[in-house]
Amino acid sequence: MDLSAFHFLRPAWLLAVLPALWLWWRLLKRQHPLGNWAQVMEGRFARLFIADQQPPQRWPIHGLLALWIISALALAGPTWIQKPIPAHKVRTGVVIVFDLSLSMLAQDIKPSRLQRARYKVEDLIKRHPEQRFGLVAYAGSAHVITPLAEDSATLLKLLPSLNPMIMPKLGSRPDLGMEAAHRLFQGAQVQQGHIIWITDDLDHQDALERFFSQHGYTLAILAIGTTQGAPIPLPNGDHLKDKNGHTIFARLNWDALKSFAQNLNATLTPITLDDTDIERLTPPFAAAQVDDQGHPVTQWQDMGPYLVVLIALLGVFVFRRGWVFVLLPVLLLPAPPSVQAEEKTLSDWRDLFRTPDQQGYIQWQQQHYGRACDLFENLAWKGIACAKAGRTQAALRALEKIQDKSARDWYNLGTLLAQQGQLKAAEKALQQALQQQPNFPQARDNLHWVRQQLNQRQT
């Protein structure tokens, strides 16, 4: 606690202390042990005629003046602590473009390229919970696994199911994967996008270079595998062979990826046993915000709201019949905007003047999704809040109750049903979303994924 930095954020409020001090001085000056008799009778005679005279009871007034002074000090904004703040806030997002070509089954790194890549994605997401992540997988075609979302729980649940054998078309089309990532950024209205490309080879280089020349996304590449390579195991226990019957070795194309990354000013890192690769994959906008000189941006933390506790305790002792009406203006004195912004300030009484949806929205902004789920009366908002709080059944009940569902409502319902394994119902909901809004890429991608899963169940 560095009291040498103590100062007031709004010192003009200290002027409000002066009237209270003047009134207090006047009160003390007028107070006399003999009360009002001292004004009409000399003290030596008054003491002979007035027995056990007690001074007037003015402690409620003293208490009220103390509340006045403490309230003025709180409004003046005492502070001695600085806290970091973001220099600016823009809509950011990270899309992981995951290579699911057959070469990812190679086992030149243990247990396999695919498994190690899954581990790295999981570590990356858990290390940066503040980021919005989306996931695209590609082989001969590209598919959105999860859209951009602040809650990455769904992505982590679907991660173990990634396998080249689930892809409908063999091959390697990273350019299609990048286009799918671009659609995710557009749908989420991202202003600053970062792509993490997990791969072991470079295909369709010209198309990739055109893509990044047209869009301002930053790129980080995680190279999986070794240059020595390894055979590609197949589910039947054999290895992948070419048309002449020779075993194919999947080798990491490091030199081509290195040249490509240098041309685009992208980050390239090999997979490592520690977190060095994750640190290099980190989005450039995930770092702490700094000013032009490279110093962290901070602001003084207003400690005035903490004086509310002292005001409340003092108010208990000052309280007596009739005085509550005098104290109400002090206790309900509105705080300035910077005080109201403090997270520690309790203003539950204001909820009396807010609708449940307004209260729910405030809880949503503070990322208290469980409380928002309980408060929202708007069924669409309630469904989304409950889903983010992990209360999937409550979210489904809310979304199903919506009478006139929008395309977004059908999309949210279909996505939740798919996560619960109710693929038939999810297919119908996503079809409804596309029927109302044909140009809805997220719904189209999710519907494609649902149909793939249905086909796999049938086979």
The assigned structural class equals alpha/beta
Distance between the termini: 68 Å
Rg result: 33 Å
CATH superfamily of the largest domain: von Willebrand factor, type A domain
**Uncertain spans:** 86-90, 286-295, 321-350
Shape: elongated
Number of domains: 3
Number of strands: 12
> What is the average per-residue confidence, as pLDDT, rounded to a whole number?
80
CATH topology of the largest domain: the name is: Rossmann fold
How would a textbook summarize the main sheet?
Answer: 6 strands, mixed
Question: What is the name of the CATH architecture of the largest domain?
Answer: 3-Layer(aba) Sandwich
Spatial strand sequence of the major β-sheet: 6-5-4-7-8-11
Please indicate the percent range of residues in DSSP E strands (runs of 2 or more): 5-15%
Residues in helix, %: 40-55%
